[in-house]
Prior knowledge:
Strand order of the largest sheet: 3-2-1-4
CATH architecture: 3-Layer(aba) Sandwich
Structural class: alpha/beta
Strand content: 5-15%
Shape: globular
Low-confidence stretches: none
Radius of gyration: 16 Å
Largest sheet: 4 strands, parallel
Helix content: 40-55%
CATH topology: Rossmann fold
Distance between the termini: 41 Å
Order of helices and strands: HEHEHEHHEH
Amino acid sequence: MQEILAQNVSADWIVLGTPSGGTHAGLVLGQRLFNFTGKILGVSIDEPEAELKRHVAQLASQASERFGARINFTPDDVLANENYCQAGYGVFGPGEREAIDVFARYEDVLPDPVYTGRAAAGMIDLIRTGFFKKDEAVLFLHTGGQTALFADKYAGELIDK
């Protein structure tokens, strides 16, 4: 979060994939510590929204102790979306395929099929459906995983037939 703010990046939203919640919790904590006024939205990779929000709040609360007095986060402090994880963990679908293609063609970024591909697919759908306002700046946080693109499980799905 501090790095984003130090680079004078202005974003109304930060969108990321959130499988285990650690990065999401760090961003929620950073948001509070550094007075970031944008919103942090975690796209669930495989967890129900209520469970994910509870877990991220718990992790952010625990992590806050490393910076002094504990900050108690509640699930209401966490924004998450479970609408894109119904296919199941590691299931590669049309949304992930499109997201990888769009990011590769227009951003020179390669999301992986499991985490960032799913989160990017969710973000693309949220843009299309008008979730974000037209004047809002949305920053997508790519957390890595390109090596998964070459796993036997996904390689055949990524090659145009």
